[in-house]
């Protein structure tokens, strides 16, 4: 047992004293890269640009003097306010829908074992490989007046004539967005389910927890924070999506993203557009912070 | 003679059968980790599984709890086959080796979980949780979360969580492993007292042989996925069947022995003399075992019928606190030494290294290892 | 399982099947259209033909656009992964001041409307004298997907026990070696998933790309412009091929992924 | 390195036949960026200060803004010999001349007409008012374009100068458009968008974004008619201009010159259904004979105001 | 008298100073978890830190290893301040309490990791890994992954991984906690032998007081983030300064005592009689301690100068294997009982429950607890 050939006790690589200055320099350099890159690549361009929101235009010309007029305008013009809340509401519903259906899919997949599990997981995200513009077109066909949904409903006798209830309205926007963005919710939800240690499930069963209660008291609370992150992800995508409402929303398809966009084209009101973007940004950040605070408060790790 | 049994060991066999493991074995793929075992566990019994790391202790417990299906055999509870019964229907509760506390629930919520699953009224849950938390000395930590506890505290929560439901069988996978000596001792007392009070079957895994002896009605000694011996603490301590048990179960002196004679005159010859043997002659070379504490030093004292003596030479002497250990060579030039353990205060008269040591022992304390 | 539980699960599978049908509805539609003509009366089953696939070969613009898209996606994901990893690991290995702030900065492009990100990056690149082209598009995509990769890597890193890193340092590995031998291998699945997600985002990115692109279009940019006058049916053929290739890769991936996951 | 020409234009305005010919002739490489909307052209040109492109194609109402922002430069007609091919009607378009200097050269034109389903209308609808007819509620689609919607409504309301509206006129137009929203199923975004929605069924009438939509619909098996209602209709002219940041103005001029080749104009009309600016016969062949009934677009008084109004229309919920 | 020291305890103070913890303390935010301590660790010393769960043992080890910076004080190695030296440059290796094995590496890769980081040749790595795996009895598990091992097997891998690099100081956070008794004993022997051979400093955390006594040159006893006592095993065992140490360090009988007199006539009066006291008088109520094994039963035997005796009543009797424990009430109606531990064979003459027990002890075995 004792034939481990211990060489003369050698004191490992000790490099005390001298290199601490170099190390410090390296540490500073590293910090510079780590903090500098995002600042340079993201913060500086965006911040410079968002400065526009404090400027104004007169006669189609930019006036570079500080003003809060754009923000006041936003508050004063009921159109933009209501489009803003309407869009938040829409994105919220899309996120909630994706959370519910994404959770169901992720949960079912998570319950599977072995090869089937990862196969189905991939199958559920593959639709992302299809271009989204093409997908919206396809959805419009599917939901359309002479599309398969109407066809099917007529075949099974639910409808006599094609309905316009599925297209060119908010419902169509929600369905289409949910279909497009669902895979983005499934993945994070699945990952948060997968992080639950099997021994916790065993412990719950051991304490008499049937599958139902185990789900409610152990699986759901432990996976919810990750799932909410997935839903927020979808919400942000939905907020920024400006094509889907346009394409399937009909005369209800005007969203905040399109309102912002309209300021940068012929309207040439960049300052107002920037202010609208800041409003959107601040709201999203607030939503995320609140969600984070809630999940922290819920003590779920 | 005073009865040494203060832990019901002698009553061990009087338990009504509760659980029967019939030919239960386990393989992972081609690797066999538990050879088929047959074991009966009595209702209200305190059964301990003892064995080296990797010997299959946890595996048995997991099959009892329903966490791992056996590869072969059936498990019966009250004569009913529960091999395929789902975990949550088994009236068993487990203290897991890795605690498995719910990270998102407070200590109180963790402990109350089982009662809640059984839809007990809130007031009852609160009261029982408070009681059991007091028992494990965590009353003041009820509102904490597992991440805010030390390792030992976490294990006590796990223990509290398993016992609060008063299950028919409690399965404990080294529940005291992480506790310090002081707390460990008080938890041993607590566990044993609890077990007596609720008369619940405990299946208990430990590494600590003293713990096993002091707590158990019976002990199952395991090695390499095989049951080496099952018996009361006294059985196992005084009558080991195999060298493995003799060695594993506390420190022991093992000496080689030769067989002579046959039938009634069958005897084993060891460096400590010859010892009578009953029963069928074992096949091959055997050995004998005698415990270090079975020796006395000095010639004084009544010499009973089976009293033997011999003079050895002191080789070394180690202070171990309550006891002191001597290594004694059995005669000049002998290849054999024995370890002798004496209560430290007994060493009043000094013996120097290399000086002769008068050893005395009783032949009844010599076990003959035939398995 | 009780009957109620079994029924719940069956019901969930039913819902799941419907959801899967919805997810694959568009794909089904597009594949169908790549083989058949569709008119007001419905599908003309007699029109089956592979002509749109054949015509793809005559459309070098579209194929070049697909190539550009893949190139941009792969480079952006690679760069963003490197950046996100470095950042996440740096934040993991010490108490870092300003962490929340930097994280917010990383998330900005993700939550801002694409047009804002697009225009501001264009202004910045113009200021830097950087020629618009696939390079600027790639940088734009890096900025966009950084947040997702960072987020997923951070989540995985958080569940990586600190003692793992400590053990490695203790055994004489410096920070880089620790990262290379202990941290990175355990991040593999998070990197694969976040990389895939990021790639799909880059694959579809249109608005930011529009501002940063030079003469070499990406596929979404081509489709975006085509949308005004209508897609030629080759688009359906192209999308069908991309889908088929992805599914094949996924099936192959599922096999190997399962093995790496089993190791954990 | 070979010369390079960066073109920002619409799908169909830089097709292979003439791009190839241009490349062969000049030895330059043409890099085309297609755009989806005027807004995009504006946003991108403004953000890049015109540096990203050498030539762009955009319609007449935009030039005031483009010159004001100094995003384009005047064209030197002496470097465009083919300018002589321009039909007289397009020889002197005031909306693209500033300080006496031409800033663009007309290339393609068309109208914002009314398209209807012949199965529903035996006769072409006579007035834009048909878009306010209860009978066709939910069976009308209109294009999502602030200026076109406002100018067309101004024509309907009989305003003299649809490009310089008074506050009162703005108010009436807003009321009129809000009223219309009830009847409109959707606001579509592009040529194909309108066509495919129409073709899907359930649509009788469309405020069209241009002539090509009629043949596109017919190709899908719909029997549709196209008409210029009695109030008149918008006429648009897409022109080529040279960006302020053009790297090789000579090459840019060469491109514009090439665009005025007669066979390019012929192709434009025959293949895509737009009016061209060089071959009158080709225009007549596709029925573009009503240029006199059109009101050609000019820069409006305040784009921002018009877009705010349009946003308001789109944002207002209808029952 | 024979020297009881077979573990170098007496030579404890002859080590050359290697490490000096100078006023090292630790707070997390406002919570102080370690009061500033001053401690010198000798080169080649085997130092054990013993204390209840949460007392700050791991905290000390983490500061030594460089994982946690101290809040106050400096750490010196060979007189050089290493407080800010990065972990990977310290010539220390650690066995972590939670193993911290790399889940994505095989056992062999785990163990070879440190050598690989030091860029040792492949052949050398393979050879050393094989050697050390054989030592921890895991040679056949080299290709397994941590998830495929039992708890004890994992801990042995962690141990192997830390010692294979031959560091100057080995830091061990309860390395033997999960091992079974047999393996634990052999690992103790192995560790101690290894430590002697390579003359490497070991800083060792354990809960097991017998382990601490048998292995250590010195023991640091901790409680609530405070060092209660530092000394050789004998010091601590026989001369506890405080009730805490007396209790924690193996089972002990603590009895209340009153002070009388002053100066030379200062004495403590306990249920076991009065005991002389030297040194300055302690402030307040004190107690005395005597170990269960310090008692003998029976009147026979030489009566030394300080021999005392008393007759109690047997309350209970528990068989503990090598020893048997008696609880004896100190006289009828007395509120005090003592635990008495006798080697099991000594109970030749039976005493029934409730019958009188003649107790005998030496006054030298009584410790007076003043701290
Ligand atoms: N999932 C598994 N796959 C393969 N082998 C396994 C698996 N789980 C356990 N084993 C092996 O089975 C044997 C018995 O394991 P078990 O956990 O029952 O040991 P144990 O007696 O509880 O040990 P310890 O005291 O160390 O906890 C070990 O050799 C272990 O390596
Ligand atoms: N990061 C931390 N933040 C706050 N408190 C901490 C932290 N780490 C440890 N503590 C606290 O410091 C105290 C000492 O912890 P330490 O881990 O040193 O105990 P220990 O003696 O090793 O206990 P055990 O035997 O249970 O391992 C404990 O009360 C613990 O709760
Ligand atoms: N396919 C090219 C379309 C060009 C349309 N320009 C029209 C401008 C009308 N506002
Ligand atoms: Mg185990
Ligand atoms: Mg600790």
UniProtKB/TrEMBL annotation, chain A:
Which locations, inside or outside the cell, does it occupy? Cell membrane
- Membrane listed as a keyword: yes
Transmembrane region(s): 28-55, 88-110, 117-138, 172-193, 214-239, 272-294
Q: What cellular-component terms does GO give this entry?
A: plasma membrane
The record's similarity note reads: Belongs to the binding-protein-dependent transport system permease family. CysTW subfamily.
Q: Does the keyword Nucleotide-binding apply?
A: no
What is the scientific name of the source organism?
Pseudoxanthobacter soli DSM 19599
Q: Which Pfam families match?
A: BPD_transp_1
Principal cellular location given in the protein's record: membrane
Q: How does it sit in the membrane?
A: Multi-pass membrane protein
Kindly give the InterPro entries that the UniProt entry links to this protein: MetI-like, MetI-like_sf
Its recorded name reads Spermidine/putrescine transport system permease protein
UniProtKB/TrEMBL annotation, chains B, E:
Which keywords describe this protein according to UniProt? ATP-binding, Nucleotide-binding, Transport
Gene Ontology MF term list: ATP binding; ATP hydrolysis activity; transmembrane transporter activity
Q: Which Pfam families match?
A: ABC_tran (PF00005), TOBE_2 (PF08402)
Gene3D superfamilies, sorted: 2.40.50.100, P-loop containing nucleotide triphosphate hydrolases (3.40.50.300)
Taxonomically, which superkingdom? Bacteria
Q: Report the sequence similarity comment from the record.
A: Belongs to the ABC transporter superfamily.
Descriptive protein name: Spermidine/putrescine transport system ATP-binding protein
Provenance organism:
Pseudoxanthobacter soli DSM 19599
UniProtKB/TrEMBL annotation, chain C:
- Name the source organism: Pseudoxanthobacter soli DSM 19599
Q: Which Gene Ontology cellular component annotation is one that this UniProt entry carries?
A: plasma membrane
The signal peptide annotation in the UniProt record is none
Any keyword Zinc-finger? no
Entry annotated with the keyword NAD:
no
Similarity remark: Belongs to the binding-protein-dependent transport system permease family. CysTW subfamily.
A Pfam family of this chain: BPD_transp_1
**PANTHER family per UniProt:** PUTRESCINE TRANSPORT SYSTEM PERMEASE PROTEIN POTI
Q: Where in the cell is it found?
A: Cell membrane
Query: Main localisation, per the record?
Result: membrane
Sorted alphabetically, the keyword list is: Cell membrane, Membrane, Transmembrane, Transmembrane helix, Transport
Q: Which residues form the ABC transmembrane type-1 domain?
A: 66-253
Q: Transmembrane ranges?
A: 12-36, 62-89, 101-128, 134-153, 235-257
Give the matching SUPFAM superfamilies: MetI-like
Q: Name one GO biological process term.
A: transmembrane transport
Can you say what this protein is called?
Spermidine/putrescine transport system permease protein
Traced from the root, the source organism's taxonomic lineage reads: Bacteria, Pseudomonadati, Pseudomonadota, Alphaproteobacteria, Hyphomicrobiales
Top-level taxon in the UniProt lineage: Bacteria
Bilayer topology reads: Multi-pass membrane protein
- InterPro entries found in the cross-reference section: Bact_Polyamine_Transport, MetI-like, MetI-like_sf
């Amino acid at each position: 047992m004792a034939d481990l050939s211990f060489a003369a006790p050698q004191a490992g690589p000790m490099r005390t004293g001298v290199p601490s200055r170099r190390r410090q320099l390296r540490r500073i350099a590293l910090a510079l890269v780590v903090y500098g890159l995002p600042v340079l690549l993201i913060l500086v361009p965006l911040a410079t640009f968002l400065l526009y929101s404090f400027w104004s235009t007169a006669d189609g010309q930019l006036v570079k003097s500080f003003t809060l007029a754009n923000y006041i305008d936003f508050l004063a013009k009921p159109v933009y306010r209501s489009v803003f809340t309407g869009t938040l509401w829409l994105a919220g519903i899309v996120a909630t829908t994706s959370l519910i259906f994404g959770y169901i899919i992720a949960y079912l997949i998570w319950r599977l074992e072995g090869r089937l599990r990862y196969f189905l997981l991939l199958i559920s995200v593959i639709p992302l490989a299809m271009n989204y513009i093409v997908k919206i077109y396809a959805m419009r066909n599917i939901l359309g007046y002479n599309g398969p949904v109407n066809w099917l409903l007529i075949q099974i006798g639910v409808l006599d004539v094609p309905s316009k209830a599925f297209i060119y309205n908010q419902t169509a926007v929600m369905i289409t967005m949910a279909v497009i963005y669902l895979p983005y919710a499934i993945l994070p939800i699945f990952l948060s389910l997968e992080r639950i240690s099997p021994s916790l499930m065993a412990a719950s069963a051991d304490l008499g927890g049937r599958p139902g209660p185990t789900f409610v008291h152990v699986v759901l609370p432990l996976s919810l924070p990750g799932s909410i992150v997935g839903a927020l992800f979808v919400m942000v995508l939905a907020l920024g999506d400006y094509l889907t409402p346009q394409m399937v929303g009909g005369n209800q398809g005007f969203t905040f993203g399109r309102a912002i966009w309209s300021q940068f084209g012929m309207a040439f009101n960049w300052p107002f557009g920037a202010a609208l973007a800041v409003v959107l940004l601040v709201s999203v950040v607030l939503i995320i912070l609140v969600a984070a605070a809630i999940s922290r408060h819920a003590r779920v790790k | 003679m005073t009865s040494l049994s203060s832990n019901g060991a002698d009553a061990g066999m009087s338990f009504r059968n509760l659980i029967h493991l019939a030919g239960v074995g386990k393989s992972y793929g081609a690797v066999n980790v538990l050879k088929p075992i047959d074991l009966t566990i009595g209702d209200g019994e305190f059964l301990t599984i003892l064995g080296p790391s990797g010997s299959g202790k946890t595996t048995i417990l997991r099959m009892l709890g329903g966490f791992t299906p056996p590869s072969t055999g059936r498990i019966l509870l009250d004569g009913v086959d529960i091999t395929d019964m789902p975990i949550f229907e088994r009236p068993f509760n487990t203290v897991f080796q890795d605690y498995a506390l719910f990270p998102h629930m407070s200590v109180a919520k963790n402990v109350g979980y089982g009662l809640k699953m059984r839809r007990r009224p809130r007031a009852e849950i609160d009261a029982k949780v408070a009681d059991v938390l007091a028992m494990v000395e965590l009353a003041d930590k009820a509102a904490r979360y597992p991440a805010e506890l030390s390792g030992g505290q976490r294990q006590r929560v796990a223990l509290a969580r398993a016992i609060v439901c008063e299950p028919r069988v409690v399965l404990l996978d080294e529940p005291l492993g992480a506790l310090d000596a002081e707390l460990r001792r008080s938890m041993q007392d607590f566990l044993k007292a609890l077990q007596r009070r609720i008369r619940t079957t405990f299946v208990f895994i430990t590494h600590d042989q003293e713990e096993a002896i002091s707590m158990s009605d019976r002990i199952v000694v395991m090695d390499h996925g095989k049951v080496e011996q099952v018996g009361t603490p006294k059985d196992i301590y005084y009558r080991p069947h195999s060298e493995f048990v003799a060695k594993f179960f506390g420190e022991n002196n093992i000496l080689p022995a030769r067989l002579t004679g046959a039938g009634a005159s069958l005897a084993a010859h060891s460096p400590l003399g010859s010892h009578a043997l009953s029963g069928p002659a074992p096949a091959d070379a055997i050995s004998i075992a005698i415990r270090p504490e079975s020796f006395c030093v000095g010639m004084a004292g009544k010499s009973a019928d089976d009293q033997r003596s011999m003079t050895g030479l002191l080789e070394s002497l180690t202070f171990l606190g309550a006891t002191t250990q001597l290594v004694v060579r059995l005669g000049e030039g002998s290849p054999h030494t024995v370890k002798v353990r004496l209560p430290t205060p007994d060493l009043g008269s000094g013996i120097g290294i290399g000086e002769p040591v008068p050893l005395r022992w009783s032949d009844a304390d010599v076990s003959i290892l035939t398995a | 399982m009780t009957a109620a539980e079994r029924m719940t699960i069956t019901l969930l599978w039913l819902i799941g099947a419907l959801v899967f049908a919805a997810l694959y509805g568009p794909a089904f539609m597009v594949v169908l259209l790549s083989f058949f003509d569709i008119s007001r009366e419905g599908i003309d089953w007699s029109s089956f033909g592979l002509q749109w696939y054949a015509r793809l070969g005559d459309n070098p613009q579209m194929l070049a656009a697909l190539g550009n898209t893949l190139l941009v996606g792969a480079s952006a994901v690679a760069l963003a992964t490197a950046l996100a990893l470095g950042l996440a690991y740096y934040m993991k290995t010490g108490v870092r001041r300003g962490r929340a702030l930097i994280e917010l900065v990383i998330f900005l492009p993700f939550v801002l409307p694409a047009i804002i990100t697009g225009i501001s990056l264009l202004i910045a690149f113009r200021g830097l004298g950087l020629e618009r082209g696939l390079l600027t598009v790639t940088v734009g995509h890096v900025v966009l997907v950084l947040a997702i990769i960072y987020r997923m890597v951070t989540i995985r890193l958080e569940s990586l026990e600190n003692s793992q890193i400590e053990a490695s340092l203790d055994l004489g590995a410096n920070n880089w070696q620790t990262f290379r031998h202990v941290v990175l291998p355990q991040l593999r699945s998070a990197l694969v998933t976040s990389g895939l997600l990021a790639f799909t985002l880059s694959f579809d990115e249109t608005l930011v790309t529009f501002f940063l692109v030079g003469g070499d279009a990406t596929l979404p940019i081509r489709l975006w412009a085509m949308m005004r006058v209508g897609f030629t049916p080759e688009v359906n053929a192209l999308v069908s091929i991309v889908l088929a290739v992805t599914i094949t890769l996924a099936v192959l991936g599922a096999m190997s992924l399962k093995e790496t996951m089993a190791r954990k | 390195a070979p010369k390079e020409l960066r073109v920002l234009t619409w799908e169909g305005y830089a097709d292979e036949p003439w791009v190839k010919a241009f490349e062969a002739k000049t030895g330059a490489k043409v890099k085309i960026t297609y755009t989806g909307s005027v807004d995009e052209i504006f946003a991108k040109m403004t953000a890049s200060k015109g540096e990203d492109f050498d030539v762009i194609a955009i319609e007449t109402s935009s030039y005031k803004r483009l010159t004001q922002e100094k995003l384009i430069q005047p064209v030197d007609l002496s470097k465009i010999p083919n300018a002589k091919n321009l039909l007289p009607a397009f020889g002197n378009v005031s909306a693209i001349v500033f300080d006496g200097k031409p800033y663009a050269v007309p290339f393609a034109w068309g109208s914002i007409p009314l398209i209807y389903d012949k199965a529903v209308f035996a006769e072409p609808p006579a007035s834009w008012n048909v878009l306010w007819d209860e009978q066709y509620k939910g069976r009308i689609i209109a294009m999502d374009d602030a200026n076109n919607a406002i100018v067309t409504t101004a024509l309907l309301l009989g305003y003299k100068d649809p490009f310089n509206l008074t506050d009162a006129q703005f108010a009436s137009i807003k009321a009129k458009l809000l009223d219309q929203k009830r009847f409109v199923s959707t606001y579509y975004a592009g040529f194909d968008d309108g066509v495919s929605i129409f073709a899907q069924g359930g649509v009788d009438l469309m405020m069209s974004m241009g002539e090509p939509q009629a043949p596109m619909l017919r190709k899908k098996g719909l029997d549709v008619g196209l008409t210029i209602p009695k109030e008149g209709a918008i006429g648009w002219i897409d022109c080529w201009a040279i960006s302020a940041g053009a790297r090789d103005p000579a090459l840019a001029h060469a491109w514009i010159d090439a665009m005025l080749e007669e066979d390019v104009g012929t192709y434009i009309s025959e293949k895509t259904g737009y009016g061209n600016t060089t071959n009158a016969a080709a225009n007549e062949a596709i029925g573009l004979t009503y240029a006199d009934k059109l009101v050609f677009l000019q820069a409006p008084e305040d784009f921002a105001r018009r877009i705010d109004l349009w946003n308001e229309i789109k944002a207002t919920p209808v029952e």
